[in-house]
Amino acid sequence: MTLELSKVAHQIDEMGRALAERAQRQRRTLPAARELLRLFANDQERLREVAASEAGQRLRCASPDDEPLNMAGAPHPLPPKTTVVAADGSQIFPDPHAMAFYYAINIGTIIFRAGSGQAPTVSTVPRLYYQDPEIYPHGQPVTGSLVGAQRNVEEVRTLADLALEEAACEPRCAALRDGPLLMWFDRAALPQGRAERLLDDYLSILDRLRTGGVPVAGFVSRPHGSEVVALLYLAHLEPEERSAVDSLSTTDYRGLTDRALFGFLREGERSATFVRGAGFIQDFRARGHDIHFFYLNTGAEIARVEVPEWIARQAQKLDLLHAVLYEQCRHNKGYPYVLTRADELAVILGPERQVLDEMIVQSLLRHGLHVPEMSAKAQLKKVAR
Amino acid sequence: MAELTVGRIVRSSTQRFAVGCRVLQPEVPTFGALVWVNAFDIGIYGLIYDVRMEDDPYVRQVAIAPDAPEEILADQRQRQVPIEVQVLVVGFQRDGVIEHRLPPQPPLSLDVIHTCDGPDLVKFTERFDYFRLVLDNRDLPADELLATNLRKAAAARGDDGNLDRDYLVKAGRELARLLVNDLQRLDAMLRRLQP
Fold first, then answer.
1. How confident is the model at residue A355, as a pLDDT?
2. Contacts of residue B67 in chain A, CB cutoff 8 Å?
3. Rounded to the nearest 10 degrees, what angle do helices B165-178 and B142-157 cross at?
4. What pLDDT is stored for residue A1 in this prediction?
């Protein structure tokens, strides 16, 4: 017996009630928030001060760029012969109960030459990690957090390598990844010094992309952020009231997302650009990679698109990314086609994992080692499930 | 004609095997073609009786999209791998001697399958003992398969790709012997063989 449904029935009912209350509250606060967006549409300077204030940083408010806050920009037509490069990654996490202690990262890539009529170039880059320094960094077993962070960096590194190569031949080339560009490396969850090294690696990759002038974007599907909502909320308070606000969760605006706020965008339209409000953005800012974002109606949802500041400041490249993203979404039910394919290429499915494990066992046998066994815990779990 | 690689075995038995290949080319794989694969010390022969591309929800979605760009259509075609080729075993060769019967063992997974054209096709189809191994498979388009194979064999014997009429007449006589109790089937087979 696993989950006794009778024991959660009451909680499910409570959950339904809470969600209904949230929806009701949003019906009330959403028009008010949109009205604030209209009122402050051209108050960028004042809003930037609010975002930079102590309260603004505490609430991780977004900071506006120079575009009117309530703008809805239609996509430009996609220029002929535009290349789109995308990468996504997946991993096999290290399992201390498996027959061998290792982990794997697989990066899927696609080069899509729009307007060429050619099949895209697809590829995968799989790699196993089994050497002692890899699986026992600082003498401790490697954790899922480290593998995940490493995967993110490898994913962007592969993306940058390909995009820079393509951009050398084709001037109109854009690079996309699934997920935010503003990556957080959790110092508490990673071995000492590792977060700093990974961050430095990541920022160096962004340096290379900036030097190559490649428009790069991170696509965040169904974003939960409320950085613009937080900004509007703080901005409408008197300065002395702001210091009393610890977070949105104690206000009527709790649960109201930017995604809902920008629900007025029509298909293909994008919002104004803003700067991300997360505290750890300072590391990015120091290296000239402040992360900006806009919301985009993909035809199926309001997604967040993150770009580095050196793209946000170049209207032509921002327009190209907007056009690429909408064109990619238009033919794929509201999600970029290249990201669907990169994910499909990268994902390691259960049966492949099984075959990989069998091949590892065979290799160990070939090299004269005893057949390793799963731990007693793993074996018994397999029997019981 | 140069020997072409069809693909690698993904499933096998002594009677049939399935081959996975990446792309369809004009010459390979084709229905009714004779193919061979090395299995230990013997070479196993088979006839391609089916070439299959499975669909999936993604292909269905693209298929009904009103204006999918060429690049996406081309990508979906390269996504559908492996293309699966089904082969019916019709004989084997050991020490240079061709036997029209089932081999003692099946080929192994991932063994490479090659086409068998020109003199090799002529050599295998000199005798007709393999007819029974084809005709007995009532779950397959056996008559169409054998007729197509015989037309390829006749073309390999003819000049400039023309069918060798004498060869087809000899094959027709063997069919008449085998299908003497099923004249309707025989009639349909002989019509398929007419040059």
1. 85
2. 331
3. 150
4. 62
Cβ atoms < 10 Å from Cβ of B21: 20
Q: How far is A235 from chain B (nearest CA, A)?
A: 45
Nearest C-alpha neighbor of A231 from the set A185, A262, A277: A277
Contact B71 A122 (CB under 8 A): no
Handedness of CA A266, A268, A274, A278 (dihedral sign): positive
All residues at 6 or more sequence positions from B170 whose CB lies less than 8 Å from its CB, including other chains: B128
Strand pairing report for B42-52 and A291-297: unpaired
Q: DSSP letter string over B80-138? A: S-SEEEEEEEEEEEETTEEESS--SSPPPTTPEEEE--HHHHHHHTTS-TTHHHHHT-T
- Compute the 3-state secondary structure of chain B and give helix, strand, coil in percent, each to the nearest 5: 35, 25, 35
State the Cα–Cα distance between residues B45 and B123, nearest whole angstrom. Answer: 12
Give the separation between CA A290 and CA A276, rounded to whole angstroms. Answer: 8
8 A C-beta contact, residue B150 and residue B104: no
Distance CA(A305)–CA(A294), nearest Å, equals 5
Contact criterion met (CB < 8 Å) for A117 and B68? no
Query: Which residue in A has a C-alpha nearest to residue B61's C-alpha?
Result: A332
**Separation CA A232–CA A243 (nearest Å):** 15
Cβ neighbour number for residue B174 with a 10 Å cutoff: 15
Give me the mean pLDDT over the A51-72 stretch: 96
Tell me: cis bond preceding B82? Omega within 30 of 0 counts.
Answer: yes
Cβ within 8 Å, pair A119-B78? yes
Question: Which residue in A331, A340, A344 is closest to B68 by CB distance?
Answer: A331
pLDDT band at A79 (very low <50, low <70, confident <90, very high): very high
**How many CA atoms lie less than 13 Å away from A168 in the CB half-sphere?**
6
- Predicted local confidence at residue B1, as pLDDT: 44
Sheet containing A302-308: order of strands: A63-64, A274-275, A291-297, A302-308, A216-220, A173-178, A82-92, A103-114, A121-129
Widest CA span in chain B: 58
Of A114, A332, A333, the CB nearest to B71: A114
Spell out the residues 6+ positions from residue A198 whose beta carbon is closer than 8 angstroms to its own.
Answer: A149, A150, A153, A185, A190
Instruction: Count CB atoms within 10 A of the CB of residue A71.
Output: 15
Q: What is the mean pLDDT of residues A142-147?
A: 93
Q: Do B72 and A331 touch (CB under 8 A)?
A: yes
For residue A292, what is the DSSP state?
E
Task: Answer yes or no: pTM beyond 0.90.
Answer: no
Cβ contact A120:A171 at 8 Å: no
Q: Select the residue of A110, A114, A341 nearest B69 (Cβ to Cβ).
A: A114
The answer to whether A24 contacts chain B (CB < 8 Å) is no
Q: Please state, in angstroms and rounded to a whole number, the distance separating the CA atoms of residues A150 and A154.
A: 6
Average pLDDT over residues A132-146: 91
- CA nearest neighbour of A374 among A100, A101, A99, A103: A99
Q: Are strands A173-178 and A216-220 parallel, antiparallel or unpaired?
A: parallel
Residue A84: name the closest of A174, A179, A217 by CA: A174
For residue A4, the tally of other CB atoms under 10 A from its CB is 8
A151 touches chain B (CB under 8 A): no
